[in-house]
Amino acid sequence: MFFDYHYLFHLFPQIIKAFPITFFIVSISTIIGLILGLFLAVIRLEKIPILNQLAIVYTSFIQGTPVIVQLFVVYYGVPYIFSKIGVDTSEISKLTFMYIAYGLNTTAYTGEVIRASIANVPRDQFDAAYALGMTKYQTYRRYIIPQATAEILPNIELSVISLLQNSSLATYLGIYDIMGKAQLVGANTTHQIEANIDAAVIFIILSILIHLSFKTLFEQKSEVTVNDELVSESTAVFTLSSKNMIKKGELKYE
């Protein structure tokens, strides 16, 4: 069929109905990636024996293989493995496997982003935190990660946008997200070009919204960072004097 711009408006409402599927794939996978990625980064930074080597192999596998391969491995491989130990996975939805596959993919990239950002935090920041009596967990949670966030956010934004684009691969496993819905209605109406243009417009709009969201977060973080820098000198003096007070038992971190 020849291009008919009327179908751009006619097909758009049908395609946009699949937005929740794409939204949940991106949102849940990003949350999984951030949580597991943080643990992965800490394992790499602390060089925990065995776990560090496993993390390197895992990251290399994810970064060295196409996303579609990872989807097939999870979708077909996980049920096969569980079937060998007597666990029935037939009741698990396709979307659940998509969350797992995309979440594991995002974990590898997010972990490297967080690791590199934390590694750029000056070592004396760790020493200052330890001097105040902080544990390693408190140091990361209250002191190091907040400082690294400004560097992490732009890279996480790219990861989320990449995940949004790769979510269209779920179509190959029968998931009717935005791209899958576009393919379906395009085939039914024989207006594939118009349907794909509609899908492209939706992806562009979503990418812009993601960018604006992260830009707002980054600007807010930058304002906090500037305010922190204004008191950095007094904090340094306090830290130096605190070391002697801690040794004397006059100051404890609560």
TrEMBL record:
Assigned protein family: Belongs to the binding-protein-dependent transport system permease family.
Subcellular location: Cell membrane
Gene3D superfamilies listed in its UniProt record: MetI-like
Pfam families per the UniProt record, alphabetical: BPD_transp_1 (PF00528)
One GO CC annotation: ATP-binding cassette (ABC) transporter complex
TM annotation in the entry: 20-43, 55-78
PANTHER family assigned: L-CYSTINE TRANSPORT SYSTEM PERMEASE PROTEIN TCYL, MEMBRANE COMPONENT OF AMINO ACID ABC TRANSPORTER
Annotated ranges, domain ABC transmembrane type-1: 19-214
Protein name (Swiss-Prot/TrEMBL): Amino acid ABC transporter membrane protein 1, PAAT family
Coiled coil location: none
Topology relative to the membrane: Multi-pass membrane protein
GO biological process, one term: amino acid transport
Organism lineage: Bacteria, Bacillati, Bacillota, Bacilli, Lactobacillales
A GO MF term: transmembrane transporter activity
SUPFAM superfamilies in the cross-refs: MetI-like
Database matches in PROSITE patterns: ABC_TM1
Keywords annotated in UniProt: Cell membrane, Membrane, Transmembrane, Transmembrane helix, Transport
Lineage top rank: taxon: Bacteria
